[in-house]
What we know:
By secondary structure, the protein is mainly alpha-helical. It has helices at 20-40, 45-62, and strands spanning 7-9, 65-67. The longest helix has 21 residues, at 20-40. The mean pLDDT is 90.
Amino acid sequence: METRKKLKFGIAEYSKPTPRKLRRLGDGLLLASTLVTNELMVVNPTIASISLIVGTIGKFLTNFFSQD
């Protein structure tokens, strides 16, 4: 029988390994936000800044997840 691992979130989980799927999600979010920022910096710096902030926060939040 396969046992499912529980996903945990919290400050205490920061130093524990991040699950692979969430790591990929965070990396993808950061990559997408960086590309959007690069394209919009000249045309619309406000949206570019918001995109970069959202991507960075999203990547940072994935570090608070771990599996049991």
